[in-house]
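New to this. Please check both lines:
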Amino acid sequence: MRLSLIELRESLSEIKESQQAVAAALEGVGLREKSLEGMLEDIQKDLKERGIEVIVTENGTVLRIPEKALSFQSTRYEIQEQYRPAADLIGAALLKALRAEHNRRILDTVFIEGHTDAVPYETGMGNWGLSTYRAISLWLYWTKEPGTYSELKGLKSLADAGANEGRPLISTSGYAETRPTGVAPPQAAEGKTPGNPADRRIDIRFTLASQEKKDLTGLQEKLRKMQSKTDELIEKLEELK
């Protein structure tokens, strides 16, 4: 019985240590999330001072560019002349934020995301292709020619020394019509193109490096095994009474 009590105390001590490690990992995740939200709010403030309104959404992880700042003609993916000044300002604000090493240390990837409205696009790869081309179009507008924003192309993730370090930070993706804004479309006037212009848009999504989450997965598995061992020891002690 004495041996079982010693084993139980050791098991409970290990559980306590793992719980403390879980708490520390959760604190790390929380600090990164807070830093990310602050970064996006800084970009938002920077752009507002220059007359561009963007929305911070999805729990502080996405910059949404409303149609007044940047939108697309139905079935088209080119950056129209009227939106290029706003695209320039957004590119400048993004580059300013991502030049800061402390920001890149918390980021895994920044996605330029293209979206479409619900009107089917019958050409090529459909709305999936169209939305992806919209994201690529903005990316190329910023980076194709050497200039103010081409530095974006060379930015690397600085998160967690190891496999991810030195990997390109920015990527593109498309979501077709699967993620509408929820903004009510304007009344379609006769002869006007159907579809919601608010959905023909670009979002910029910032994803956090996930080292703490990986640590949590391992700690949770360790806790599960230790809890099982503790339960077995308690059963043995009950039998010895």
